[in-house]
Design goal:
By secondary structure, this protein is α/β, with parallel strands linked by helices. The chain is built from 19 helices and 10 strands. The strands form 2 sheets. Strands 3-2-1-7-8-10-9 form a 7-stranded mixed beta sheet, sandwiched between helices. Strands 4-6-5 form a 3-stranded mixed beta sheet.
Length: 478
């Protein structure tokens, strides 16, 4: 069993164990909130598993997960009538969840399974619990009580504009104590007694003071306090996920198209894996995959997408002529055109369709070669190269013949595509337009014919991919 299997099994068990309470006592709307919260809890835990260094999910994380399903149970009553009986019952249940908070940490230390994932998972469950309790408190005492659940989320949002706020904070006993005070203040508001609002207000003062202390420390120790559009990389990631993952029928099209080159038990290299939909297709076809991605935010996404898949090797590197480093020119808003080629950036910037693209920053990343990847992982049956104008540099680092490969072409990078065709002497060529996933025509072209096609490209010509097969390929004519 693996971490993901442990998580799936425990998620089903925990959701089933807690379900009777909302099923019997909550409305249909409440059951919907319970289900939504359970799905969000599973998705958050699944997303973070890439940061969990142990082979199994672990007992401590299971306790945290159970507390999270308890939080989902509270969510089922967010819209329920706030009778005195309901308020007391919710306060007692919330108190039990808060009291259990220290048990998962103790269990992790006892079993020597403490990890950054476990600490973050525990913190996010705690924060979401405080927010849910704050919503209930606001219903009975007024909108001001909502402030007891919002500071952490305001802090996270502010860090997108002021990155210095995302720097690590030193450990603090004060922060832990105030977290307990925050929970007790919310419980005090829920319990129908006169002192409750005053205790809640005191907890709010303590909470705001604690955040002010942390912000002051981060401000004083920050190397720079410049504002940035910290959301842009994440919006770019979401844009790519939407483009490559949420097109109806695309998964089946990918599988049928690549089945020509990618076979069960084979090996494929995805150079410029980006959002990973090609790598996922090749895994469905039964091949092992080497996913190569130098953009840190996309490499992190791939690590989470393929967590616990031993047949996907993630290489967080660029590929070029030699091993070393290179400068990657990043477009946060349009990450599909991030490139290591200054010539491509200059040409694309003047090409139709790129008017809104800005390469807004540069980052130095490690660089390897195709030959080095082959030495580590074996000779691939198929290599997809999609590196925005640096395809010829990637092929320059290859001396081993591979059966089949593909590389991108466009008017802005036509000279790079020409260099790739010339380097692949003895191969035959076809092409597909854009994301059409169909080869154009039935006849394959030799090198001179493909060069002639590239010579005919105009600024209005659509981009696409050129596919090359070696004479040894099973589909090549005899």
């Amino acid at each position: 069993m693996s971490r993901t299997t442990d998580l799936r099994n425990f998620a089903i068990l925990a959701a089933a164990c807690f379900a009777p309470a909302p099923l019997v006592l909550a409305s249909v709307e409440g059951m919907g909130l319970y289900a939504l919260a359970c799905v969000a809890l599973w998705a958050g835990a699944r997303w973070g598993l890439a940061d969990h260094p142990f082979a199994r999910f672990g007992a401590a994380n299971a306790v945290t997960y159970a507390r999270g399903v308890g939080l989902a149970t509270i969510c089922a009553f967010l819209t329920a009538p706030m009778t005195e009986t309901a308020r007391v019952a919710l306060a007692v249940f919330a108190g039990a969840l808060i009291a259990a908070d220290g048990f998962d940490g103790w269990l992790a230390r006892r079993n020597r399974t403490a990890s950054a994932f476990g600490a973050r998972f525990d913190m996010e469950v705690d924060s979401a619990l405080m927010l849910a309790l704050a919503v209930l408190a606001a219903r009975v005492e007024g909108i001001w009580a909502l402030a007891l659940g919002l500071p952490r989320y305001i802090f996270i949002g502010a860090a997108f504009a002021w990155p210095f706020l995302s720097a690590p904070l030193p450990p603090s006993e004060r922060r832990r104590i105030v977290c307990v005070v925050q929970g007790l203040g919310l419980i005090a508001i829920l319990v129908p007694w006169p002192a409750g609002p005053w205790l809640g207000a005191a907890a709010l003062v303590a909470l705001l003071w604690s955040f002010a202390v942390d912000v002051r420390w981060l401000w004083r120790t920050a190397p720079t306090r410049a504002m940035e559009n910290g959301l842009a990389p994440y919006l770019g990631l979401l844009r790519s996920i939407a483009i490559y993952w949420f097109v109806p029928g695309r998964a089946g099209q990918l599988d049928r198209f690549y089945a020509r080159w990618v076979k069960p038990g084979g090996l494929a290299f995805d150079i410029g894996s980006h959002a990973g939909n090609r790598a996922a297709s090749w895994r469905r076809l039964g091949a092992a995959v080497v996913a190569v991605e130098p953009q840190p935010i996309f490499a992190d996404f791939l690590a989470r997408l393929f967590v616990d898949d031993a047949n996907v090797a993630l290489e967080r590197t660029a590929v070029g002529r030699r091993e070393g480093t290179l400068v990657l020119r990043v477009s946060d808003r349009h990450p599909t055109v991030t490139s290591a080629s200054p010539d491509f950036v200059a040409a694309a910037g003047a090409a139709p369709g790129y008017e809104a693209v800005v390469w807004n920053r540069a980052v130095e990343v490690p660089m390897t070669t195709l030959e080095a990847l082959i030495a580590r992982h074996g000779r691939p049956d198929f290599v997809k190269i999609d590196v925005e104008g640096a395809e010829a540099d990637v092929l320059a680092g290859l001396s081993t013949a591979v059966p089949a490969l593909s590389f991108e072409y466009s008017w802005a990078s036509r000279e790079v595509a020409r260099a790739c065709v010339r380097r692949l002497a003895g191969y035959r060529f076809s092409r597909a337009v854009g994301e059409d996933l169909r080869l154009v025509g039935d006849a394959w072209l030799d090198g001179p014919a493909m060069l002639a096609f590239l010579d005919g490209l105009t600024p209005d010509s659509p981009s696409g991919d050129i596919y090359a097969e070696a004479a040894e390929h099973p589909h090549a004519p005899r």
